[in-house]
Each structure stands twice: as C-alpha cells, then as structure tokens.
What we know:
CATH superfamily of the largest domain: MoaB/Mog-like domain
EC number: 2.10.1.1
CATH architecture of the largest domain: 3-Layer(aba) Sandwich
Low-confidence stretches: 1-18, 135-147
Bound molecules: ligand LQZAQKY5, molybdate ion
Pfam family, one: MoeA_N
InterPro entries: MoaB/Mog-like_dom_sf, MoaB/Mog_dom, MoeA-like, MoeA_C_domain_IV_sf, MoeA_linker/N, MoeA_linker/N_sf
Largest sheet: 12 strands, mixed
CATH class of the largest domain: Alpha Beta
CATH topology of the largest domain: Molybdenum Cofactor Biosythetic Enzyme, Chain A
Function: Catalyzes the insertion of molybdate into adenylated molybdopterin with the concomitant release of AMP.
Strand content: 25-35%
Mean pLDDT: 92
Cofactor: Mg(2+)
Distance between the termini: 33 Å
Amino acid sequence: MNGLTALSDVTEAGRPSQRHLTDCSWPQARRAARLAGRRPLPAIEAALADALGHTLAVPLAALTDLPAFDTSAMDGWAVSGPGPWRTVGRVLAGQPCAPIADGEAVEIATGAQLPPGATAVLRREHGRTVPDGGAPAAVATATGQGLGPGLLHALGTGSVPPGQDVRPRGQECRRGEPLLPAGTPVTPAVLGLAAACGHDRLTVHRRPTVELLVLGDELVDSGLPSAGLVRDALGPLLPPWLHAAGAELIGRRHVRDDFGLLRDAVRHSPADVVVTTGGTAAGPVDFLHEALAAAGGRLLVDGVAVRPGHPMLLAELPGGRHLVGLPGNPLAAVAGAVTLALPLLHALSGRPAPEARPETAAVVLPGHPADTRLLPVVRGERGVLPLAFDGPAMLRGLALAEALAVVPPGGLPAGAGVELLATP
Ligand SMILES: Nc1nc2c(c(=O)[nH]1)N[C@H]1C(S)=C(S)[C@@H](COP(=O)(O)OP(=O)(O)OC[C@H]3O[C@@H](n4cnc5c(N)ncnc54)[C@H](O)[C@@H]3O)O[C@H]1N2
Ligand code: MOO
C-alpha cells in the first residue's frame, strides 16, 4: 500500500483501517498515532500533591470567588469616604474585621479583608496621621512612624479615589466559572491556581504507563565505550522526555539481541505503551517485527517517509496495549518519538494535539527529495536556522537545538513558514 492510498484509511474523524500503513507520509503517521490513542485513559481523582504531570479530565472550575472577599492590595489604611479620617483600629491579613463608617479609617495590611463600609485604601507612604487635636506627626514610614491613632490625612490632593488599591471580590473569577479546559496538563501553575480557588483534589486522566525496552548487545550503560561497544544514549534520554509527555515510566530494561527474550518482554509487559529502541531494520539480529508478530501484535504503522527515523513502527498489542518501535540510531529514535510516541501518549493522556504555529525559515532548509526531514534548529534574529551534526546517529546538533523543524519533501526556501516541534 502506498502512502496516498492509506490516507483515506486514517482520519481523526474515522475509524482506523484494519490494514496498516507501510512507508506512509510523516503527517499520516502522526495522525495514526493520535488515532491509536483516541480513547483516553479513565479519569481518576488525585490529591493536588499527586496530580502534577497528569491531564485535566474535566474543566477546572473555581469553587470560590477570587479574591473571596474585598481585599487590600497595599499596606496602609482602609478609608471610608473623603478624608481626613479618624483612625479607629487595625486589621491584619487573616483577621475578621468590623465595619467602618464614613470619615473613619483602619490601619490595614496587604491581603487583609477590607472592612465593610471602606471605599478605598490609602497607601502607607501616601498618608500621615496627626494626633487628635495635636500638631501634625511625621509622614508615615516603614518603621511605623506616624501610624498612631489620630486624624489621617492623604498627602498631595488630600483624597483617594474610590476603589483605589482594592482588589474587589471576584476580580479574578467568580465561583463556578470555568478557568481551564479539559486536556490541560497539570503544571505547577495549574496546581497553584487550583489551590487558590479551593480545590483539594483534581479529576485527571490516569497517566499511560510506559515500559522502555532498550535493545542491543552492543550497548553499555556506564563508562567509556570500546571494542565495538556503544554507550546507551536512549536509556537516559527517553524516560524524562516521555514522562514530561504525560507517561508514567514503570520500567526500563536492556534486552539482549535474542528473539525469545524480546518476544516475552513484549508479550508480558504490563505497560499501556511499550517503547523499544533498535531492532527495527533488517539486520541479522533485528527481531522486532518477528517478536511483535509472535506476541500477537498488529502493525498500525510500519515505516514512515521521514529522515531520520524511517524504520519506526507502531503496533497494537493484545489487551489494548500499544508498542512504539523507535530506530536505534539516536536522532532517528528522537524522530520516532516525536512522530509516534508523543502523539500516542498525548492522546491517551487526554491532551489535544498541539497547534502548529509556523515560524519563518531564515535560510534555505534543505529537504529530502521524497521524505519529510526533521532538522535540529535554533531561532536566530531573522528566523529558524539549521544546526550542524544532524546525522541519524548524532545527538550533538539536537543538544544545541531549540526545536526540530518539519521540512517537507523538497525542502523550504528562506522566508517560508516552518512547523517546529519541541525537543527533548
Ligand atoms: N539494509 C538496511 N539497513 C538499514 C536500514 C535500511 O533501510 N536498510 N535503515 C537504516 C536506518 S535509517 C536506521 S535508523 C537503522 C535502524 O536500525 P535499528 O532500529 O534496527 O537499530 P540497530 O540496528 O539496533 O541500531 C542502529 C544503530 O544505532 C545504535 N544504537 C542502538 N541503540 C542505541 C542506543 N540505545 N544508544 C545509542 N546508540 C544506539 C546501534 O549501535 C547502531 O549503531 O538501520 C539502518 N540500517
Ligand atoms: O533514517 Mo535512519 O532512521 O535515519 O538512520
């Protein structure tokens, strides 16, 4: 089947075909991966402390007005009506407060509840008090000078506009107001907002579990590579990246080049998504296709017209699990992850597909005649610039890159729009 025929088989709206995509185009492969995860994992209730990195399964709505009461935005005095004012007490943050009447003021701290009847806040540095019936006191200072009881005057105009330095109740949101849509990743900022508006728990999608199987007898995981051995670059690279994409890493194993070991590792993995590295091509010990078949896997994508990374694959495993086969060459594996693993994990986590926001190519971005290219790039003053050391086996360009540019077949001229993907 060629890529064009397969296009009609995989759409966001439709069901995936029973046939699989062989050497399909890069956009088709990415769509197929999202479609494979079209049923997000079930919603669970998580305490705020456990919700980081999950994805909201329902919109986040405020449980209270924010602020929940009229609040002083500054240290100074809450005043009622036009000045001067008779000072009648003090209210600190967290304390209840009594009403004040026209012509009265209370000393107030930032964040304290504004007393009923107060019309504005006079900043400490903008007022001074004079003792009742006495001579004017010093201008109020940070040391508290001039804050004693007495008559309070506003410096300058002698007045303070109504509402000045007051954060009115509900200024940020009203109780019940939706603040964030379902599908939002729970970041530290989301946790803070959720707490501020009264939540102790969040309804989030269960994270897809991932097991990483790193294949290859030649790989070592410490020290200097020698005598044909190679340091495993993907064991360190992939887990934190997949975790940031919404996954829960439940295991990382080095699997030797042995058909039976690989078949059993795939067959018995409890993960929602098994991610393998290496073994995708046609070498003498590239057993992934055979192991997949023996483990009951069904290919959804087998090869993608993209450089690097073209032998990448995606399969469905018994029990509704999936397998993403990343090529062994490290930059090719990264290309496989952005094409297949991340869209699948995002979809399973309940996250929407990120919107493409094209940027401008500063120079010609060289392409492959027939395949999409994924190029490590940086943003320069005049637009996107490619980096050197972009070979499939290299990570040097990627480590300097701000993004991977999606360069369609044939390349892009300077000034053209180019889609950028986040790098690990
Ligand atoms: N006859 C053909 N040979 C190859 C083809 C092809 O179409 N026909 N495709 C090439 C392409 S493109 C790629 S990419 C690789 C993919 O190979 P595999 O997925 O089978 O990966 P391996 O053979 O296991 O390894 C390839 C390469 O990467 C190194 N490697 C593997 N894992 C790691 C790791 N975790 N960290 C660092 N380096 C790793 C491995 O030592 C090899 O050098 O196949 C081409 N061949
Ligand atoms: O296309 Mo392979 O995946 O680059 O070396």
